[in-house]
Amino acid sequence: MPYPTRSQILTMLRPLSNPSAGNNDFFAHVRDDVLWIVTGHMMLSGIWKTKESFRAATFSKLGPLFAAPGMRLEIPGGEEGIIMGDNGRAVIELRTVNTYTKSGVLYDQHYSWHMRFDEDSRISEVKAFMDTAHVEKVLGAELEKQKGLMRNTRARM
After folding, report:
1. Entry's InterPro entries (predicted)?
2. Model confidence over 11-31: pLDDT tens digits?
């Protein structure tokens, strides 16, 4: 089977625009032994060598920070937001859309995912770039607010 086309990549990533139902659909295209790197020096930076370890360290921790329906990701420009390379490589621009924290703060983020696909059109590697200062400012603050709420709730019990 050949590497995926732009259209196929767009189809794989489209479920991320519907976080309540789509994350599992997206991750069905990710190899169990994926290499996932989140660059920078922040609370979400790291290197993971399995799909489950990446999800546990990132998506599972992020979910509770966002108001419903969660973090919505879209590819600006559709297929034009996907740059194809050789040997199963692609660079994809993603952007959050109408994404708010539970405290009501807008999380307006741009991502660049540098991806590698295997010959079965499954995602084998991702290196994610983003505005790390914005992650810390918005999501770090939301995490601290939620921790404070939990401490206050326990103190009243």
Report:
1. NTF2-like_dom_sf
2. 999 999 998 777 899 999 999
